[in-house]
Specification:
This protein is α/β, with parallel strands linked by helices and about 425 residues long. The chain is built from 14 helices and 17 strands. Bound molecules: NADP nicotinamide-adenine-dinucleotide phosphate and L-homoserine.
Amino acid sequence: MKDTIQIALLGSGTVGSGVVRVLKENERLLTERIGKRLAIKTVLVRDAAKKRPVLEGLQVTTDFETIVNDPDIDIVVEVMGGLHPAREYMLRAMEAGKNVVTANKDVLAQFGQDVFGCAEKKGVDFQFEASVGGGIPIIAPLKHSLTANRITEIMGIVNGTTNYMLTKMMEEGSCYDDVLREAQEKGYAEADPTADVEGLDAARKAAILASIAFNTRVHLSDVSVEGISKITPADIDYAKDLGYVIKLLAIGKDTEGKGIDVRVHPVFLPQTHPLSSVNGVYNAIFVRGNAIGEAMFYGQGAGSLPTASAVVADIVEVARNIQNHNCGKLLCTCYEEKPIRPLDEVESCYYIRLLVDDKPGVLGAIATTFGKAGVSLKSVIQTRRNIAEHAEIVAVTHRVEHKLVREALAAMIELPVVDEVRNVIRVESEQE
Ligand code: NAP
Ligand code: HSE
């Protein structure tokens, strides 16, 4: 048996360079923990001419064939990102009998079935802890430590960029455009921040989390998604006045018998909820199980070393499996086929902010319209907010099906006294 486990790294950007550093800095303790040396044999990059001091002494290539055809390579670590060619490279590596570790949520959320199928067929490991929550352990806890539970709910702050932006808006009253610019200047938000601010990054993570928590395949297209770009300082003020914070949450619920409900959207969260104090770029995932009750996993959801922490842990797991001739054993855990619950059937409380004419009878007309649609109101606030001849009405509903709220709002906008539906945000109620 070889005394070194050989690794090929696909990508040496933020995460890849972190993986190189962790493997170098912790080389001795990792060797002691595994009983064998881990060595990076080859690193695949796009631009071989780029100066990369972290890769000094390592073989760098731009040709994937040198990796897939190298019989010495035991583990391929995919940290290049994107759908293609990352998916094809992972599949080819597995076809060649190599174990794969990845941080790639895009491929998992869209092609999870393909990669698990291939790993199963070839009897190799496929690990992906870093794909959700960066350095936070959540995939392994769901598959191992919490496996005694029926998980009914998983709810997370899984996007650091938007959590940083919402925290700044809550703390400083800044507007969306200003905090987005600041997040870009600090390097949290990308030059094209669409995937983060419109909720797509969180939706990919929601699909992965729900698939594992509920043992059923949830595709990205099953997740209903709404981002944070419509949140204004006015919504932030109302949230504070009512005792809430606004968070972008990835939510998965297993409504026994009625299907799986998976969504990403901003939420009014009670200030007393454990997720409400998760601020800045930090991430956290809250899990409810029928034996453990509530549990929460908190930490850095992105960044070079935190993400590398999860990737290297996966490498160690695979290395141990190689040692014990145990690869390819715990792969896809989606052994059920549960239906996805249509969004229209999902019940929530809602915050609804309307711009209306400031004249007598308006409140009554609005309450009647809600009532006719079957939407029961918990509270109503009317303010002028310095708007000439107009007022704002904020209604908070009791729990109601999404369909009824949609129909109430369609009727509302037809009322001559209602000028605009300014925002609609779900409220996570403590009395549910
Ligand atoms: P990154 O900084 O953009 O690095 C990507 C690396 O992959 C670069 O070294 C690039 O080569 C290489 N690469 C890209 N396309 C390639 C191709 N077609 N052929 C060869 N090499 C290619 O990306 P990252 O932030 O490290 O993210 C990597 C993965 O980790 C993504 O799936 C991401 O979603 C996931 N992830 C990232 C974080 C984070 O904090 N950044 C956290 C959790 C998960 P060049 O250097 O030559 O351009
Ligand atoms: N763009 C992600 C975030 C990090 O802002 O949390 C990578 O998953």
